[in-house]
Design brief:
The protein has 813 residues and is α+β, with helices and mostly antiparallel strands. It is 22% helix and 28% strand. The protein has 17 helices and 39 strands. Strands 4, 5, 6, 7, 9, 10, 12, 13, 17 and 18 form a ten-stranded antiparallel β-sheet that branches. An eight-stranded parallel barrel has the order 19-20-21-27-28-29-30-31, surrounded by six helices. A hairpin with a 2-residue loop joins strand 25 and strand 26. Helix 15 runs parallel beside helix 16 and helix 16 runs parallel beside helix 17. It starts with a strand and ends with a strand. The relative contact order is 0.09.
Length: 813
């Protein structure tokens, strides 16, 4: 990262490079600084607003008044060459900027922003080649910096290690600290912003990340860039899309005739606490070499090929927003937690009321979008390991990585557990080889189905499990060599629960003087000591009394915009609750380090990085149709670690062989989450399940050094064919371990042509491993597929039966 720290403008990012890219910086030969770089932070203060009311979040007055005050760089105490990639301690860079109060006063916006004709005159003065005809090549921007020729006041942060924190002496204005953290060996960064002001200063938005993309240095343009984004909804999660940026809302408007910052932007946001309920808090820009010969030469790649990709992901379990917009020229990615316009959030800075924004991750690498996803995968792993180390549970974290869980819910009991139903399932799960048996919703229900609006006490049912009760069922599970798991929805109290009357009002979300109710439930406010004490006591009791080793934490109702009780703003109350909930999770993990915890938010409605950096498993959906689930599983790797993808494998005896193989295949390369009436299976079908588990355990051992891979491109959610796999990390050394060079791919055919082509370079072989041809008798109707080499880059897979959907798993060596 190369920053321009000139005295007459805010600090901006003028250079960025990642794995496989040419090093950025003034000392790099032939390096090109990015024109029109955005400030590295935006601060929307209520009293000053923005310089452009079309771009209220990315042209803020307060952000434009900030000036460089100092920087500090620190590193890990030590870097262990033998530690996993990323280690557990990051490098950290803090850039401090300051704006005095007399600069933070209402004023008219700059001339070039208010008047396009004036902006054109300024641009023409800077570069006579700019004209109103729309032809020619502009090398100037509307702020007067002459493109690649302007002087970059690059600050070398390597000299900052022993510099005192400059913020200590800045007292008469707004101090902003931009923090960047990077784990050793990774091409990814975690960024957030800290605001301080000794006097009251209302702020309505602050960016956690404001990233200017290095298009000029890599021979790319806005026109040659592509955008990737993901949509989510209940039972149709992980629906990812790709489009040329100009085919999205970032339209070409001819900036030679209409100079200045474009108000065209592609923006997504999410409200409340289903952080992934509508869209993914993540996206990717893939920059391709421009069609011109000069641009292709600059990039060192063929015209039209990807030169670099950047991925970002907001690390927050609440409200957020991100946008991709056009500079003059160039592209920026700006990401926020909650803000006022969409989330009713603000904070009034002042003595003792500093503010820290939510973290945002970004990864950058040479090549296409899959390389950026690979880098982000390594970053997520490093964050998980660092969090486990922080909580003092690294050994338990590593042990839980290899456990297989059976859950009685999906396409099985659907929340109606009873002794006569559970005992056969327990025996079947043990025969299959599960390590944990989880009793899902309903274990606390003594009203025969009326539990939805009565939840909250979490006492075992008095009429579902016979005389021995839940304790007796737990004992049977342990006698079969498995650990007990229980479903729990800790953040809600049913309106008919006795606890609704006994807990104080301040234990719940309230607005306008009344409790917030959603679908017959009140929502606990984790800022409240009473709320936290209740859920902590519940978890402790279930662990102590029943020996629970696994919790499935669900979250089926949400509190809306937030709470106005004891909060500066409704959105501020929600943000503080979200952070308090994460603190509570950390406390639970410290007190019960051996207990595994699954994150389930009505499927994957809260599958964000803040939750997943702390928890072991993510339910990827509540989808009951294995054909649709294949699309969900295929896209999960863009935002969820393979070892956390709880993809349901709900094989049934009555399924034909191809369908049983298909549903099991969806989980093997992620985290196979078993369900189904496993007790009804004959020996042949049970053997197929055991084969899937055996392969899954083998993959689990290798996952730490594998990253997601899509050899047929981005999964099309409604497409006939889907592929998703795991490949070794770029540059992995396979000399000491033959398995380090093995990749895996799951291929689903739902309809259409009887074959699919995969990008597999020459010298690599493709072999079917599930169902294994050597175990043909375990699924005799699912005959092996054919594999043909088409050319040096392409392998063709041909199904054995094109009359029905099917799936296979292959090893690539």
């Amino acid at each position: 990262m190369v920053f321009d720290a000139g005295a007459d403008h805010p600090v901006s990012l003028v250079g960025l490079s990642g794995r496989g890219m040419a090093v950025a910086g003034p000392h790099a030969g032939g390096w090109t600084a990015q024109r029109d770089p955005r400030p590295i932070v935006e601060v929307l203060a209520s009293g000053t607003g923005s310089n452009d009311n079309r771009l209220t979040l990315v042209t803020t007055v307060a952000g434009s008044k900030l000036r460089f005050a100092g920087a500090r760089a620190t590193g890990p105490a030590s870097v262990d060459d033998g530690a996993p990639v990323g280690g557990t301690e990051p490098y950290r860079l803090e850039i401090t900027q300051f704006a005095p109060y007399d600069q933070l006063r209402p004023a008219g916006r700059p001339l070039d922003s208010a008047d396009p004709a004036a902006a054109r005159r300024l641009a023409e003065a800077a570069d006579p080649a700019v004209s109103g005809s729309g032809s020619g090549s502009a090398n100037a921007t509307s702020n007067g910096r002459a493109g690649n020729d302007y002087a970059v006041n690059a600050h070398d942060c390597g000299d900052c290690a022993d510099t005192p924190a400059p913020a200590d002496g800045l007292t008469d204005g707004l101090t902003v600290v931009s923090v960047f953290e990077a784990f050793p060996g990774l091409s990814a960064v975690r960024a957030y912003t800290v605001l301080r002001s000794p006097k009251p200063l209302p702020v309505e938005a602050v960016s956690s990340l404001s990233l200017t993309l290095p298009l000029d240095a890599n021979g790319a343009t806005v026109d040659s860039s592509r955008l990737y984004w993901g949509d989510n909804a209940w039972a149709v999660e992980n629906d990812w899309h790709c489009a040329p940026l100009r085919d999205t809302a970032v339209r070409e408007r001819n900036q030679r005739i209409n100079p200045g910052e474009s108000s065209s932007r592609f923006a997504l946001s999410s409200a409340s606490t289903w952080s992934t309920g509508s869209h993914q808090p993540a996206g990717i820009v893939e920059a391709l070499a421009d069609g011109s010969a000069d641009a292709a030469s600059t990039a060192g790649r063929a015209s039209g090929s990807p030169v670099f990709s950047v991925m970002w992901q907001i690390e927050h379990n609440g409200a957020w927003e991100w946008e991709v917009g056009e500079n003059d020229p160039g592209l920026h990615v700006t990401a926020f937690g909650p803000e006022y316009q969409d989330h009713q959030w603000f904070t009034s800075l002042g003595k003792g009321n500093d503010f820290t924004s939510v973290p945002v991750l970004f990864a950058v690498a040479a090549g296409d979008w899959q390389h950026a996803v690979g880098e982000m995968t390594l970053q997520r792993r490093a964050l998980r390991r660092a969090k486990a180390a922080e909580l003092g549970r690294l050994p338990q974290f590593e042990r839980s990585q290899g456990l297989v869980v059976y859950n009685d819910y999906m396409n099985t009991l659907f929340g109606d557990p009873r002794l006569d139903k559970e005992l056969p399932l327990i025996e079947g799960a043990a025969k299959a080889g599960a390590d944990v048996f989880c009793i899902d919703a309903g274990w606390y229900d003594s009203t025969d189905g009326g539990w939805w609006d009565m939840v909250g006490e979490w006492e075992p049912s008095t009429n579902r499990f016979g005389k021995a009760g839940l304790a007796g069922v737990a004992r049977v599970i342990r006698e079969h060599g498995m650990g007990l798991g229980l479903w729990l929805e800790p953040e809600v109290i049913g309106v008919k629960s006795p606890l609704a009357a006994s807990l104080p009002d301040d234990a719940f979300f309230t607005r306008h003087g009344v409790r917030v109710c959603d679908s017959g439930r009140y929502l606990l406010d984790f800022r409240s000591p009473a709320a936290r004490e209740h859920v902590s006591r519940t978890v402790d009791r279930l662990v102590d009394e029943f020996g629970v080793e696994f919790f499935k934490f669900d979250y089926n109702t949400i509190p809306g915009t937030g709470t106005d009780h004891d909060a500066e703003s409704v959105g501020g109350g929600l943000l503080d609750h979200c952070r308090a909930y994460l603190d509570w999770l950390d406390d639970v993990r410290r007190r019960h380090p051996d207990v595994m915890i699954e994150n389930c938010g009505s499927g994957a409605m809260r599958a964000d990085c803040a939750q997943l950096s702390r928890l072991d498993l993510q339910s990827t959906s509540d989808q009951c149709d294995p054909l649709i689930y294949a699309a969900i599983a295929a896209g999960a790797g863009l935002t969820i670690l393979p070892e956390q993808q709880g993809n349901w494998g709900y094989a049934q005896q009555e399924m034909d062989d191809e369908t049983a193989v298909l549903t099991l295949a969806s989980g093997v390369l992620g985290r196979l989450y078993l369900s189904g009436f496993i007790n009804r299976m004959n020996d042949t079908r049970l053997a197929l399940v055991r084969d899937a588990i055996a392969l899954h355990r083998r993959v689990l051992v290798e996952q730490e050094r594998l990253v997601p891979w899509w050899p047929a491109g981005l999964p099309d959610f409604t497409g006939d064919w889907l592929t998703a796999g795991l490949r070794p990390v770029d540059g992995a050394d396979a000399s000491a371990d033959a398995s380090a060079d093995v990749a895996y791919v799951t291929v689903w055919r739902r309809d259409g042509l009887p074959y699919v082509d995969l990008n597999v370079p020459a010298g690599r072989t493709v072999k079917q491993i599930f169902p294994a041809p050597s175990a043909f008798g375990h699924a005799p109707q699912a005959r092996p597929w054919s594999v043909e080499r088409v050319d040096e880059q392409t392998v063709r897979l041909i199904v054995s039966d094109d009359s029905r959907p099917s799936a296979r798993i292959f090893a690539v060596r």
